[in-house]
């Protein structure tokens, strides 16, 4: 083996000893990198609290429960069966409205304002062809806040919450998604919703439970 190294010329014609050093040190470098990556991966999975750099700590955290609308299962479900939304990633959706907002949502009078504290939660299922799958998609939330909260959006709060993104989103957001007002990430919700009466799109007529 030594012979092999000694007879082999180096690219720049340096001494063989130097060449061997290069080989050794590059092997050492690779091993060190592997160890570093292992430590990093372990930190990401197990959540190193102590010496991990900030970026790693951030990645280790996952999104928690909803801050607004967590009790949606106690709200009124306003659709008969899951509706294929034309927006929201074309997923199948169920819409729930709390007691405060129910009359305004179902009244039919599109001029009727939503009382402060109205909460609308829309859960979703990933589509499997033309049917809903068992795989949950994001949850979409709107809440009517006090006057002055966000006057350009009629004081609506918006949120998108997705604990376990799937498909290409899983790679992009391995620890989940939780965007909520006033984050610029939910600006696109308002942009669209501001185009509707009272900022709600309502359940399509054929699917309404009321
Ligand atoms: C391209 C337009 C568009 C965008 C963008 C959009 N929505 Fe909607 N949204 C609608 C329409 C239309 C409806 C009613 C029909 C349905 O459910 O698809 C609706 C319904 C809802 C509902 C149920 C209440 C209602 O309006 O009847 C909630 C809650 C909601 N969206 C939240 C969000 C949030 C949060 C975002 C951003 C993360 C968002 N939406 C982005 C168009 C949009």
How many β strands by DSSP? 8
Number of helices: 6
Fraction of residues in helix? 25-40%
Series of secondary-structure elements, N-terminal to C-terminal: HHHEEEHEEEEHEH
| Distance between the amino and carboxyl termini | 84 Å
Overall domain count: 2
Kindly provide the name of the CATH class of the largest domain. Alpha Beta
Instruction: Please identify the structural class as seen in this structure.
Output: alpha+beta
CATH architectural name of the largest domain: 3-Layer(bba) Sandwich
What shape does the CA trace take?
A: globular
Question: Could you explain how this protein is built, in words?
Answer:
By secondary structure, this protein is an alpha+beta fold. Helix content is 30%, strand content 20%. It has 2 domains: 2-60, no CATH class; 72-207, Chalcone isomerase (3-Layer(bba) Sandwich), CATH 3.50.70. The chain has helices at residues 2-7, 16-46, 54-60, 99-106, 168-172, 187-193, and strands at residues 76-77, 83-84, 92-97, 119-128, 131-136, 139-144, 156-162, 177-180. Strands 1, 2, 3, 4, 5, 6, 7 and 8 form an 8-stranded antiparallel β-sheet that branches. Helix 2 packs across helix 3. The chain is globular and about 40 Å long. It binds heme C. The site of heme C has 22 residues, from strand 3, strand 4, strand 6, strand 7 and helix 6.
SSE layout and pairings?
Blueprint: H1 2-7, H2 16-46, H3 54-60, E1 76-77, E2 83-84, E3 92-97, H4 99-106, E4 119-128, E5 131-136, E6 139-144, E7 156-162, H5 168-172, E8 177-180, H6 187-193
Antiparallel strand pairs: 1-3, 2-3, 3-4, 4-5, 4-6, 6-7, 7-8
Helix pairs in contact: 2-3
């Amino acid at each position: 083996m030594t012979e092999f190294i000694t007879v082999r010329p180096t690219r720049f014609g340096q001494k063989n000893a130097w060449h061997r050093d290069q080989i050794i040190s590059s092997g050492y470098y690779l091993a060190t990198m592997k160890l570093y990556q292992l430590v990093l991966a372990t930190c990401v999975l197990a959540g190193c609290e102590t010496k991990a750099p900030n970026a790693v700590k951030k990645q280790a955290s996952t999104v928690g429960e909803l801050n607004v609308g967590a009790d949606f299962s106690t709200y009124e479900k306003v659709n008969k069966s899951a509706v294929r939304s034309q927006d929201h990633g074309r997923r199948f959706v169920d819409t729930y409205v709390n007691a405060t907002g129910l009359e305004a949502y179902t009244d039919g009078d599109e001029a009727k304002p939503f009382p402060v504290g109205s909460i609308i939660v829309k859960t979703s299922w990933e589509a499997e062809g033309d049917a809903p799958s068992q795989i949950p998609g994001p949850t979409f939330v709107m809440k009517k806040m006090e006057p002055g909260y966000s006057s350009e959006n009629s004081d609506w709060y918006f949120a998108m919450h997705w604990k376990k993104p799937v498909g290409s989103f899983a790679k992009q957001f391995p620890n989940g998604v939780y965007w909520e007002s006033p984050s610029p990430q939910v600006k696109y919700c308002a942009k669209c919703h501001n185009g509707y009466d009272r900022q709600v799109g309502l359940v399509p007529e054929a699917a309404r439970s009321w």
